[in-house]
Write a structure and sequence with these properties.
The chain is α+β, with helices and mostly antiparallel strands. It has helices at residues 41-62, 68-84, 103-113, 119-122, 129-139, 142-153, 274-310, 322-352, 358-383, 385-388, 394-402, 411-423, 436-453; strands at 159-162, 178-182, 185-196, 203-209, 220-226, 232-237, 252-263, 267-268, 312-313, 316-317. The protein has three domains: 41-152, Butyryl-Coa Dehydrogenase, subunit A, domain 1 (Orthogonal Bundle); 159-272, Butyryl-CoA Dehydrogenase, subunit A, domain 2; 276-423, Up-down Bundle (Butyryl-CoA Dehydrogenase, subunit A, domain 3), CATH 1.20.140.10. It has a four-stranded mixed sheet, with helices on one face. The protein has a four-stranded antiparallel sheet with strand order 2-3-7-6, with no helix packed on it. Bound molecules: flavin-adenine dinucleotide (FAD).
Length: 457
């Protein structure tokens, strides 16, 4: 199978250069055609079960006005059923009680769960707990794993990831929250913004400056901060998808840490390692976000199509009007391309590791978020005023989807990173390498040479 390669402006013919994205020969097992779009039947059965379960057991919960505590009580028996199917906390490797599925299978599962915002906690794979448990698994000491990770995995605890500072979230090198070691305690000071589940969690993982004099990517560390420590103040934020901030799953806060003291052993990983740990945390998490967006798209798309064949105005069914047909056709292709790109990124993590897949991981975010927006927007439009009303779930899905262009880093930042990596492989040329007069001159010269050398007679 040919490797995907960019042809640089300086190259009239493909030349060997390190491809910046796409499958490379080293990704593939030698002499093996590794493309395979099928799902193994045993796992497909699990996916079918998950989808049915989400539709039958979780969709109805969306129509009730549950607060967080009620929600946790109501989902407890559902979580047991998920455990019974072996689908609980599937993001973990086998040694931590997970299934060792790998990112492609996890992606497919998240496609089912994405259909309802309430589904991930029922399956033990809700953000930020998944990322936080992975962080502690990667960087935690044995004692930290026992104290913080195990209860997180068994759902006895919830956690928050406290990183963003208002206005600099996309540039962690500018963070100003500090922690200073005072004897055997860290003393934490600063304010974080938009921290999910801050007030509902048992502990926060806080990214803070501990090495102010170090190189800019080595200045920050991560601390595990129990939420009940003195000196933590929280201001609940209303967000676009939940202006009251009392929704069952996500609520967000501005958190101020004022002389908050935590034991020295609550440092997660080494001093100055927060930046690299944050990178490790975001890779697989983004695959799961994007596959959940595919699930959102599928649900909205089903609603769009159902309405198209159900409603007639101005003499014909909506499904017979070309604009609606265009929306159906374009949405189907866009969702499929987003799905394949995301699964490709997942596959690349599985075969080559998250570091080698970072370009694809960034691409799926800025490619997928606008696809989800457009599909939701068309579904709303097809339903007219009903689509805009709270009589359908579309308006809520639409408001929540808007966040996707911001969380996990704004799309613009990912585009910059991808473009930089791609452009690194190109060299400047005074004359474009495809310049036809120049190539014609070279071709004529070559032909004259060949004629001169040809045997006569
Ligand atoms: C629903 C939701 C949940 C969140 N949950 C959490 C959480 O649990 N914990 C947490 O710590 N944070 C959380 N965040 C915060 C999120 O991580 C930040 O909003 C995000 O990283 C952007 O940071 P910022 O808001 O400070 O924007 P800024 O960094 O100020 O960026 C603002 C805008 O500037 C532009 N921009 C920035 N950099 C570039 C660039 N290099 N090139 C071009 N344009 C650029 C972009 O358009 C960007 O949207 C959440 C956000 C949302 C919306």
């Amino acid at each position: 199978m040919p490797a995907h390669k960019f042809r640089g402006p300086g190259e009239p013919a493909p030349r060997s250069r390190r491809p910046t994205f796409g499958a490379t020969a080293t990704d593939l097992r030698e002499n093996e055609l590794a493309w395979d779009f099928s799902t193994d039947p045993e796992f497909q059965e699990k996916l079918d079960w998950a989808l049915r379960f989400v539709e039958r057991e979780i969709y109805p919960l969306e129509t009730l006005e549950l607060d967080h505590e009620e929600f946790r009580r109501v989902i407890a028996p559902l979580q047991e059923q998920v455990r019974g199917q072996g689908l609980w906390a599937t993001h973990l490797p086998p040694d931590l009680g997970g299934q060792g599925y790998g990112q492609v299978k996890l992606g497919l599962l998240h496609e089912c769960l994405g259909r309802s915002e309430l589904a991930p906690p029922v399956f033990g794979v809700h953000a930020p707990d998944t990322g936080n448990s992975e962080l502690i698994a990667i960087a935690g000491t044995a004692a930290q794993k026992r104290r913080w990770m195990d209860p997180l995995l068994s759902n006895e605890m919830w956690s928050a990831y406290s990183m963003t500072e208002e206005g600099t979230g996309s540039d962690p090198t500018q963070f100003t929250t500090t922690a200073v070691l005072d004897g055997d305690e860290w003393v934490l000071n600063g304010t974080k913004y938009c921290v999910g589940n801050a007030e509902r969690s048992d502990f926060h993982i806080v990214m803070c400056v501990t090495e102010p004099a170090a190189e800019r990517h080595r200045r920050t560390s991560m601390l595990i901060v129990p939420t009940d420590r003195d000196g933590i103040e929280m201001r609940r934020l209303g967000l676009m998808h939940d202006p009251s901030g009392v929704g069952p799953v996500h609520n967000h806060s501005e958190v101020t840490y004022r002389d908050v003291r935590v034991p020295a052993e609550n440092l997660l990983g080494g001093r100055g390692e927060a930046f690299s740990l944050a990178q490790a945390r975001l890779g697989p998490g983004r695959i799961h976000h994007c596959m959940r967006w595919v699930g959102v798209c599928r649900r909205a798309f089903d609603m769009l199509c159902e309405r198209a064949v159900s409603k007639s105005v101005h003499g014909s069914a909506l499904s017979e009007k070309q604009t609606i047909q265009n929306w159906v056709a374009e949405s189907a292709a866009a969702v499929e391309s987003m799905r394949l790109l995301t699964l490709f990124a997942a596959w690349k993590i599985d075969v080559a590791g998250a570091k080698d897949a970072r370009t694809e991981i960034a691409m799926i975010k800025y490619h997928g978020a606008p696809v989800m927006h457009d599909v939701l927007d068309r579904a709303i439009q097809t339903h007219g005023a009903l689509g805009f009303s709270a009589d359908l779930p579309l308006e809520q899905m639409y408001r929540w989807a808007r966040a996707s262009r911001l969380y996990d880093g704004p799309d613009e930042v990912h585009k910059v990173a991808v473009a930089r990596r791609i452009l690194r492989d190109y060299e400047p040329h005074d004359v474009p390498s495809e310049h036809v007069p120049t190539r014609r001159e070279a071709a004529l010269h070559r032909r004259a040479e060949a004629t001169r050398q040809a045997p006569t007679g």
